[in-house]
Amino acid sequence: MKHLMTTILKTPHVIEILEVQSFEMNVYLVKIQIDGQSGFVYDKHDKPMRFHNSQQVRDMFEHCDVKKSFMTHDSPYEEMIGNPNKATTPMEMPFSMQQPY
Question: Please, what's the b/e burial string for 10-24 (b: 16 or more CB within 10 A of its CB; e: otherwise)?
Answer without folding.
Answer: eeebebbebbbbbee
